[in-house]
Amino acid sequence: MPITKRILFTILVILAGAIGYLIELRSGSENLAIAMVILTVMMIVSLWALSPVNRDEDK
Amino acid sequence: MEIADSPMGERQRRYRAMYRERVTGWYNGYLHAILLFAPGTLAISIYIASLANIKWWEWLVVPVVFLGAQWVEYFIHRFLAHRPSRSPFWRLIYVRHTLMHHQFFTAEESRFATHLDWRVTLFPPFTLVVFTLLLVPPSLLAGWFLSSNVGWLIIATGTGNYLFYELLHFCCHIDDNLFVRHCPIVNTARRHHTAHHEMSIMMERNMGIVFPFWDWAYGTSDLDRGLLGHLFNGYSTRYIKKDMRRTVRTPYLLTRHRPHSEPQHAQSDTKA
């Protein structure tokens, strides 16, 4: 995945994570709100991980 | 590196060796699996923990979303992963699936040699992120207009379907063992998917990659039996259709000069 798309998806993940965080806070689930932050971080790691593998396939 | 007692042909053996050379040296299959399943499992746990006072009708979302997601998987596999598209994105799916995955794994040899081969089957880790982002809008809309439980169930079932696919597809390509041989659904998926890797039927049979529901519905299965029989067939070959059009077809050839050429139906090129 090109770096520009990764940046775009990172922004979208942060937005989605923020929405999930706010939903959990409004429903009174502080623990799940913290878990949502952890999930967002893990998603960003997954988004950027293993990128150099088999890059020539994408061409 | 390669499986010692494999019945694979020389062509497949060469392709597998070439593919491995192209994977960068630091690749680790265990890390790849963790990057997929750890956030996926955490996500589903959060979604399920967010359910509250769930009503009976809200559970109906689960089979509807599951079968809907299975249909999308079936459609993409049947009409895009096995046919070259004009779109670069869909053509990439075709190249990775038909030209790579189906050359790496055939009906003669469909097992990983080591964890370094998991790259051929597991999707890149960012796929989970993309699927999650695709699930967010319908989940938010359902949560807003129907109920928050329906919203959480949509995103939980969608994510679960993706992990279900990854896990079963992975199980289809590991060595045989007691678990995969006797676990219902898993053993069905293994036979169903291995049959799909038979080059003579791969373009038209068993297109639901690991779950045969839509193959049963559309009549594209290689089995001649009912729905329950399809789902719990296991390793049995008793009900395999005997009147299949076992047309020998090679994967369509994609070249720089003929990117959108007509399918190549070579009759002699499939058994190397």
Automatic annotation (TrEMBL), chain B:
Pfam families documented for this protein:
FA_hydroxylase (PF04116)
State the UniProt keywords alphabetically: Membrane, Transmembrane, Transmembrane helix
From the UniProt entry, list the residue stretches annotated as the region Disordered: 253-272
Top-rank lineage group of the source organism: Bacteria
Segments forming domain Fatty acid hydroxylase: 63-220
Instruction: Report biased composition (Basic and acidic residues) as residue ranges.
Output: 260-272
Statement: the UniProt record of this protein carries the keyword Metal-binding: no
Membrane among the record's keywords?
yes
The protein depicted here goes by the name Sterol desaturase family protein
Organism, by scientific name, is Noviherbaspirillum album
